[in-house]
From TrEMBL, chain A:
GO terms for biological process: cilium assembly; DNA replication initiation. Component of ORC, a complex composed of at least 6 subunits: ORC1, ORC2, ORC3, ORC4, ORC5 and ORC6. ORC is regulated in a cell-cycle dependent manner. It is sequentially assembled at the exit from anaphase of mitosis and disassembled as cells enter S phase. Interacts with DBF4. Interacts with POLQ. GO terms for molecular function: ATP binding; DNA replication origin binding. The lineage of its organism: Eukaryota, Metazoa, Chordata, Craniata, Vertebrata. Its main location: nucleus. GO terms for cellular component: cytoplasm; nuclear origin of replication recognition complex. Belongs to the ORC4 family. Residues 104-265 form the AAA+ ATPase domain. CDD domains: AAA. Coiled coil: none annotated. This is Origin recognition complex subunit 4. It is found in: Nucleus. The keyword ATP-binding applies. Keywords: ATP-binding, DNA replication, DNA-binding, Nucleotide-binding, Nucleus.
UniProtKB/TrEMBL annotation, chain B:
Residues 278-407 form the Origin recognition complex subunit 5 C-terminal domain. The keyword Nucleus applies. Keywords: ATP-binding, DNA replication, Nucleotide-binding, Nucleus. Residues 21-161 form the Orc1-like AAA ATPase domain. It holds the Pfam family AAA_16. One of its GO terms (biological process) is DNA replication initiation. GO terms for cellular component: nuclear origin of replication recognition complex. GO terms for molecular function: ATP binding; DNA replication origin binding. The lineage of its organism: Eukaryota, Metazoa, Chordata, Craniata, Vertebrata. It is found in: Nucleus. Component of ORC, a complex composed of at least 6 subunits: ORC1, ORC2, ORC3, ORC4, ORC5 and ORC6. ORC is regulated in a cell-cycle dependent manner. It is sequentially assembled at the exit from anaphase of mitosis and disassembled as cells enter S phase. Residues 209-276 form the ORC5 lid domain. This is Origin recognition complex subunit 5. The keyword Nucleotide-binding applies.
Length: 479, 411
């Protein structure tokens, strides 16, 4: 029986059920966990035509599509062929292959801004390397992270654990870091003591390791990579371009100065193509028709002018994929299952939410009194050229406004005004000049305003029911 | 974002219950739920929710997680004095607590290792959520905690939700980190009245309470938009509002009378100045201390000496307003200057007995005066006066002393 009939013919219950069965048998259990296939078949039996069963099937397919796309944006699954970094990939693969197979020691740094794909590059290279049987059985991997291993002692314990040598070390006490490390590497030597197993060390957040005391870990690892005893590869990943400045002279001299830079040279056209690819469903999606319809709607979306403008704005701010994925996830979360397409309006709204000024939002929620205090502070900093001020000066300025220019603001008592001032301090819109100190009374502590002139004016425009005299006071030149 | 709560994977009844529990916040709850997706879908590794106090950030998040029965743990970072407490709470709530054994002061490395181990034994079918309330405290704990938590999704299907009053720009570490998705909870605008009106008293009609709320908001809204505080003020002042009704002086429809009764009371409720009862001479000592702090020493002769003669105009130039002593703060003064002013201010002759000096010490204990300089300086200790002008004026009024005449700034 052909998969699809023309719209006019009615399907019998049996035909509906067999259609549904086709979907059930697919690899990825199209139906979400909450929807029991038996219930679905029963409802299909009571709605004896394909069109009636369609909503349920669409629902399930949409859920599956969401699952795949979310995994792509959130979990950052390594794509089988990362684009744009072919030469770097070949370079790194060759380097690691030389260590793993030929026993040559090496060290390399992968440098690139956040989200440029350093970890992705390393993972894909390691995956390809470990497909070789010889490598799989021989080479050991140690993953260290600067955020987790904040101390050399912790790092050493982690290395011991990952090399699975805890039993061998037991309760031994070592004099120095170097002794410990050499012991570990000796223990890896094979039975005939002629060759030792190659070890690949990956150091994530490499620049954080440079802040350890004496940089012992780095010194020892790089020292071993220079001496010919054990084949060791040290791969560092960092986002700082000036990472070499952080290294001590003796550590720097042992480093091979090999750097792989991941500065993404993508242009706007490639960016749009990548967006289209990331929004599209993969080839192996259970229902071909749904995937085709989805992909063609995505193609039309990416050709839409307003969407191109939004993407250009994002591209001009940052080219990395993380911010793109955030935008796409927000757009995806606006899509409802009854109408499963992403519309240009969704992308625009998502972009607006991603690029909101957080401080302006906070200013929007302040009370009138707090807003007046901020305007008083703005006038003070304009008048005295950015010098810091304290609560009494601000209160004085505010009182002048009340006496001379205002008719709508009530003259509040000092403790009330002080409380408003303290709230602004809590929100960190005002920062004390030299840290909180108990010696100076809080009314006299010098503070500075952390807001810009334009931010305040914009907030005033958007403030709901702002009294006109307050607005005029803000725009006037001198208090 | 869709206005009503609609999401696959959850029953209609559950979603309706959530909508009822979050009045005026349906849009934010819907946005958050749309980001969460279905129970087993991945969500963004970290979500940062910010907004003023009492905007419903914790309430909406917790209601969603609880009612929809998602595996979650809520930690208030203020309670966690050390990172170890934070780790224990997270692991203990997400996994079977018997399997969790942390060392005495665990580091983030231990936490991650244990988390990975426990995940391998008990892999999640549904997304786990870790909610960190008052996340601004995390910045002051060790520097690797915040970036570490933002990347926790590399281990497992977990999403970390950070709640805070402070904007994300103040959290970002200097070398960058994995940026969270930011969600703003705006202020209530119209909804505030609706929520406050829900607290109505059973013995009075809802319209009366709404009328009362409108008056209350009219007085306090320009000062305070915090929902919790307004609810407290409403509860506090409602009995006074209902007084004329109980006494039988007015009916519920006499809105004008009720308003006239309550308005001055509410305005007074904003004042929080309080006076403490001090002994007579202590009051004068305090006044003398205030004068010593806020008048420059060269002007003492003019104020306190009986026949001072003419003072040259040039030494008495009116200075720039910014350097008014009242704006800069109190200056320290030595003890003998204090006593000199004290004797000229007090009418009756007072002998320099020890009781006067002990009263000075008790003023220091009450923190109305503070001692400046070294503790060991016994022959001429220095003090400064730490009370405000309003306070000292109130005190001076009780002893019948016109302090403004003696202050240099009010010349």
């Amino acid at each position: 029986m052909s998969k699809r009939k023309s719209k006019d013919t009615q399907w019998t219950a049996g035909e509906c059920v067999s259609q549904v069965r086709i979907y059930i048998n697919v690899k990825y259990c199209v139906f979400c966990t909450y929807l029991n296939p038996r219930i679905l078949i029963q409802s299909v039996k009571s709605a004896p035509c394909y069109r009636c069963a369609l909503p349920y099937i669409l629902l399930a397919l949409f859920g599956q599509a969401q699952k795949i796309l979310r995994e792509r944006y959130c979990y950052q699954r390594v794509p089988s062929s990362p684009v744009g970094i072919e030469s770097q990939r070949k370079n790194l693969l060759e380097l690691l292959r030389r260590t793993a197979i030929h026993g040559e020691s090496n060290s390399v740094l992968i440098v690139g801004p956040r989200g440029s794909g350093k970890t992705m590059l390393l993972k894909s290279v390691l995956k390809e390397l470990f497909e070789v049987r010889e490598v799989q059985s021989n080479v050991l991997l140690v993953h260290l992270n600067g955020l987790l291993q904040t101390d050399d002692k912790i790092a050493l314990k982690e290395i011991t654990r990952q090399l699975q040598l805890e039993n061998v070390v037991g309760d031994k006490v070592f004099g120095s870091f170097a002794e410990n490390l050499t012991f570990l590497l000796e223990a890896l030597k094979k039975g005939n003591r002629s060759s030792s197993r190659p070890v690949i060390f990956t150091l994530d957040e490499f620049d954080l390791f440079a802040h350890h005391k004496n940089q012992t870990l780095l010194y020892n690892l790089l020292d071993i990579s220079q001496s010919a005893q054990t084949p060791v590869a040290v791969v560092g990943l960092t986002c700082r371009l000036d990472v070499l400045e952080l290294l001590e002279k003796r550590v720097k001299s042992r480093f091979s100065h090999r750097q792989i830079h991941l500065l993404n040279p993508m242009d706007f056209h490639q960016y749009i193509e990548t967006t289209q690819e990331h929004l599209g469903l993969p080839q192996d999606f259970p229902d071909e028709r749904f995937a085709q319809e989805w992909n063609s709607s995505i193609k039309m979306l990416c050709e839409d002018r307003s969407v191109k403008d939004v993407l250009r704005k994002h591209f001009n701010t940052s080219k990395d994929f993380r911010s793109l994925h955030m935008l796409l996830l927000m757009a995806l979360s606006r899509v409802t299952p009854t109408n499963p397409t992403i519309k240009p309006g969704d992308i625009q709204e998502a972009s607006r939410l991603c690029s909101m000024d957080a401080k302006a939002n906070i200013l929007h929620g302040l009370s009138i009194l707090e807003l007046c205090l901020i305007i008083a502070m703005k006038h003070l900093s304009e008048l005295y050229d950015g010098e810091p001020f304290n609560f009494q000066m601000v209160h004085n300025e505010f009182k002048k406004f009340i006496q001379r220019k205002s008719h709508s603001i009530h003259n509040f008592e000092t403790p009330v005004v002080l409380k408003a001032f303290e709230h602004l301090q809590q929100l960190e819109l005002i920062n004390p000049m030299d840290g909180p100190s108990a010696k100076i009374q809080k009314e006299y502590q010098l503070v500075k305003l952390m807001l810009d002139h334009s931010q305040i004016m914009e907030a005033l425009q958007k403030y709901p029911q702002c009294p006109t005299d307050v607005k005029q006071w803000a725009t006037s030149a001198f208090g | 974002m869709p206005a009503e709560l609609r999401q696959q994977g959850y029953s209609e009844a559950q979603l309706r219950l959530v909508s009822e529990k979050v009045p005026c916040r349906e849009a934010q709850a819907a946005a958050l739920l749309a980001l969460f997706g279905e129970p087993d879908h991945y969500s963004f590794p970290s979500i940062f929710i910010y907004g003023h106090r009492a905007m419903g950030k914790s309430h909406v998040t917790l209601t969603l997680l609880r009612e929809l029965q998602m595996p979650h743990v809520v930690v208030s970072c203020v309670e966690c004095v050390s990172p170890g407490l934070l780790f224990e709470q997270v692991l203990g709530s997400l996994f079977d607590s018997s399997a969790v054994t942390l060392s005495r002061s665990p580091s983030l490395s231990d936490f991650v290792r244990l988390y990975r181990q426990l995940c391998a034994e008990d892999s999640a079918k549904h997304t786990r959520y870790i909610v960190l309330d008052r996340a601004e405290v995390l910045r002051d704990m060790s520097a690797n905690l915040l970036p570490g938590f933002l990347r926790l999704q590399e281990l497992d299907n977990v999403t970390v939700i950070l709640l805070s009053e402070i904007v994300w720009d103040k959290f970002r570490p200097s070398t960058g980190c994995f940026e969270p998705l930011q969600l703003h909870f705006p202020d209530y605008s119209k909804g505030l009245q609706q929520i406050l009106a829900q607290d109505s008293h059973p013995s009075y009609s809802a319209e009366l309470y709404t009328f009362y709320i409108n008056i209350l908001l009219g007085v306090f809204y320009s000062v305070c938009k915090d929902l919790r505080e307004l609810r407290h003020l409403a509860a506090l002042n409602f009995p006074k509002f209902c007084e004329p009704l109980e006494k039988g002086e007015a009916e519920e429809s006499d809105t004008h009378k009720l308003w006239r009764n309550i308005e001055p009371h509410l305005k007074k409720a904003m004042q929080t100045v309080y006076l403490r009862e001090l002994p007579y001479y202590s009051k004068f000592l305090l006044i003398a201390a205030y004068l010593a702090s806020y008048n420059p020493a060269r002007t003492d002769r003019r104020f306190f000496v009986k026949h001072h003669g003419k003072i040259r105009k040039t030494t008495f130039l009116k200075k720039h307003e910014k350097t008014s002593n009242h704006l800069l703060g109190p200056k320290p003064f030595p003890l003998d200057r204090l006593l000199a002013i004290f004797y000229s201010v007090v009418d009756s002759r007072v002998a320099p007995t020890a009781s006067i000096f002990s009263q000075i010490s008790s003023l220091v204990t009450l923190q109305l005066l503070t001692q400046v300089g070294h503790d060991d300086q016994l022959d001429n200790p220095k003090y400064k006066c730490t009370v405000s002008l309003d306070f000292i004026r109130a005190i001076a009024r009780t002893v019948g002393f016109d302090i403004l005449r003696y202050l240099y700034d009010f010349l």
